[in-house]
Fold these 4 entries.
Entry 1:
Amino acid sequence: MYVEPARDPNPLAPAVLAAAQSVGIPTFDDHNGHIMEGWGGGALFNLRIRNGRRQSVFRTYAYPYMDRPNLTVLTGALVSRVVLEGKRAVGVEFLHEGTFRRIMVRCETVLSLGAINTPKVLMQSGIGDELELTPAGVEVVQHLPGVGRNFQDHILVPCVWEYQTPLPPRNGGGEATLFWKSDPSLVMPDLQALVAEFPLTTPEVAHFSPPPGSWSLLPSLIRPGSRGRLRITGPKPSDLVEIVADTFSDPADIKALIHAIELCREIGNSPAMRPFVKREVMPGNLAGGALENFVRNAASTVHHQTCTAKMGRDEMSVVDGRLKVYGIDNLRIADGSIMPRVTTGNTMAPCVIIGEMAAKFIKSEAGLEAQLEEDSARPA
């Protein structure tokens, strides 16, 4: 997995880090590790960009092996359910070019559909809370009440400034980040601010009308106390999944985000940022109920939805420590849905590690690791 710090960043990015230093936030050479798990700090982002091109996980892991006869990548396919014989996964059913098809397996099935569609497919396969499945018209195979529960996400609220002189985005438009605590007594940061080299709004706050030549500092909540859930609306793959995010159901989350906004405004309006600021566009000097209303109206997802089929040992857990679904043979999950809680930072790298561990478990149980070691020990 090739990563590197942002090359030749927009001057805005190092300026934000200098401004953060001016208000007491230290900066580091790398945004991973200590600043996420210690007191906090700022750094240029590590990016999946090489020679000017973004590197996808697919391009890194799967594409180099597309010529192998034992790998098939089928696009435009919608997985509808896991095929079960009793409590044993024997394949998957999917919709492709208007026709339902099945692929049967010799070893096992791994679901890696993400925190929305993995629980959807589980529930429509009869694996989930019987109190939810039966009313939806799905026959219960395995009662697992945690499927679709414990939904978590990172939530951001945009703060926007108009440039003195507009600068075009570089490296994808986001090159610096900050981690900090809303309360000094916390063990690790619960807030993250991300630089966006363009204006960001939601329809509810579009009346602020940021001009195109604007940039954003995005305070986000990375250790939310709120928990949501997913529900299926019917047994068919075309039946939508209902996402009950319950954002801000924990009042502490609003309080933390307000703290994050105040911090970002302090940075954005600091003397270090004057070369890049013509005026603050939003939120401005709001307070009390007006600021809380702004948070609710401007809140948006960072697209880090996770935790809806969590690993653990309690009654709400869905997978064990080797990613196997409780009560179902030959079925694993390898995506962000298995996280017990959302990670402090971005979720891509943790999801890659989950995939690596799934591969390790599968190789071990299939005896492939021993075979590979034996092959490597043979003389050439």
Note: The radius of gyration is 23 Å.
Entry 2:
Amino acid sequence: MTNTLHFRAAGGIDPGRVHEVNQDNTLILARPSGDGEAAGLYVVADGMGGHQAGEVASRLAVSTMERELAWLLRSPDDEDTEPSLPAINAEFPREPGQQAQEWVIRAIKRVNIVIYEYARANPVEAGNLGTTLTCALLQGNQAVVANVGDSRTYLLRNGTLRQLTEDHSYVARLVRDGQIDPQDIYTHPRRNVITRSLGHRPEIEVDSWMLELEAGDRLLLCSDGLWEMIQDDEALTAYVRNSEDPREAVEKLIAAANEQGGQDNIGVVVVQVEAGEEEATPD
């Protein structure tokens, strides 16, 4: 007998208390375990740019991620649909997982091209549009986590919340170089400078990681509108850990970010990893 996992998730966006236009977008796609091994794709994108350009960028990001990777989550009984990625085996790799990692990286690079080409075709409307993005692709007990920019993915395991991604920002670089303390990122005069984002150049580097999941894990994906407002690590952990389910966690997190000032748009996805029924293994 082998233990299976399944996933429950919820997401939400909120404009916050300062901005009228919400430039954050989220994506939740799931395949339940009844249609084969449980799988899910979860994305948070935080757009940037004047007027509504950031909203366009983040919307293009989530729609392109869906178009590029949704075929991985279809039921085995569905008709085959050719992905726009290079021809590859549609069976999700179980080990070692490098192929899944490549699919995610290719999809994010495709997002970059889509936004970049939109900006070139619509220079007036686009302005300096771009977006950050963080995502998690889950199937079975494996996850691929990736990011560009300062939207983050965290893992809650055994009561401890740990940031999996690394921020691509000027202040994060200073912290890594030991030039400022981690708490200084919230007050540094250049705290809003992003060193890597999608849509500004035809080529982009994507950071990615493989993760083995365990029952009881929770993933938190969020834009800086959340983590910059809830700066206390213990408070952030408590909201994710103590909520009954992902929906309650999302609602509490958004409310807390607004209570702390709501200085930016807020995008949040929470994924709960649960033990499923055992499956018989062949002799």
Note: Confidence is low (pLDDT under 50) at residues 80-90, 279-283.
Entry 3:
Amino acid sequence: MHPYFHHLFDCLQGRGEAAAAPRCSLSVVAGGLAGVYDLGARLRRSLYDRGILQAKRLPARVVSVGNLTVGGTGKTPVTASLTRLFQAHGKKVAILSRGYGGQNSGVTCLSDGQQIFQKPPQVGEEAYWLARTLPGAAVYTGASRYEAGEIAWEQFKPDLFLLDDGFQHFQLHRDLDIVLLDAAAPFGNGHLLPRGTLREPKSALRVAQVLILTRYQEEHDHRTLTDLQAAYPDKTVLTATIAPTAARLFPESRLERPAALKGQALFAFAGLARPEFFQRTLADLGVQLAGFQPFPDHHAFTQAELANLIRQAEATGAAALVTTAKDWARLGERWDAALPLWVLDVEARIDHPERILEFL
């Protein structure tokens, strides 16, 4: 029996230290559920590893970009960076995304590389951001990435499929697995869901070929990098930074460099898995943060919430609000309030990206 189950059983039966611990009811139950999740995750991957369940193959090579933890590793900007890398080497790329946060069901052609056909809320803001950011790349969404890939192949004939958030999507065969790990906490708190943020145990990394340590800062994260390289000597371990590239002021749609935000008193809001990263980015830019309002990841803003944000910003004396490009997509890319809104865009920069090309 998993050790968490022993502890959970003692707690429920009122035995020993487990019963006396004030955190028994929450931490132990979460630990027990994490044990169940662990068994399920291992079993599911094992069924595919052993060929008991068969992954389907698409007509072109498939590169997966995924996480070991839930959210917050910079997957969307890294996917964009990889797309540009492959395009620069003559590859015609089709991105296959789950399309989380969108209203559409089934397979959706969001972009054919020339024209964007759908916008939020019909499609998720991350897939839309990729389509808007990556001219020449097709973007298809759907719960079945295989079905999306089949349709993309018929309509677009890509040289390469880029599978967004694909490390746990076993139903589709991948030729290359790239896993992103946040430099500040590569394995979260070390525990599986729901006790922690791990989607799978660390042993799942055995099937990945490339590990990318994202949001890497040499002065803070060099030890983490060397430890990761030592733990996985058979992997290609790279680093990536995620940096702001542009700031646009609405409603006039004035484009500026991110440095234009320095010294400004701004009220920030964002619906992200890790909103603290956005807050840190603003601080690094020298923004005088008048306030910060986080929302759940993929949050759909209501008019009442936006009106409240404006009232809060005005009460603090902020000169404007500021948010992320993904949140801007969820706002419908419209802003007509009297108080201006800055939208900050970011880009991932991968060190030695040519090492990824060696796998293709």
Note: The first strand starts at residue 61 and ends at 67.
Entry 4:
Amino acid sequence: MMAGKILISTAYLPPVEYFTVVSGAEEIFVEKEENYIKQTYRNRCYILSAHGLQLLSVPVFLGSLHKTLIKDIRIDYSKRWQQVHLRAMTASYNSSPYFEFYFERIEKVISGDYEFLIDLNMELAEVIIEILKIKKSISYTSVFEPVGKISNDYRYNITPKQESVFSEKKHPQVFNTTDGFVPRLSIIDLIFNTGPEARNYL
């Protein structure tokens, strides 16, 4: 990988730091050939509700006897996750300044019928990038590059499992908490609360 190119994981409405990396890159490659990793932003995000941090997770089918490539991970529609996510977003953000401007576009994608998780994530990423006015194209990887081989590799360090290496700028949030600003929420928290100014917080 040359300077200006980054390698990232696929992610479901990931946190601000994910798009901070994307906004500073010249070329963006989403990892398509890795094995799926549970409990990461690949199929989950966090929003801020009246009751605090809320996890939204897209249920997926996993192979029982072997590891499954991320590109082969299918969404499980037997669970009513779409309604749950959309209701949670509405409850959390319908009083935010820019909810009505952007929610319909996100709702349309989530309400769609995507067989594979990676396709849902990519469609949402394209919508977010357009809202943020980041004029970048995203490509998929064609081979798996081992960790440590490539510079600007963010596949495994933007994760809820470890401390963030990014310092997030504080932005207005709907619900005040005793601890004040809540970082590492889904990008939709920033978009619904700051609208056209969202790019300035990346």
Note: The first strand starts at residue 5 and ends at 8.
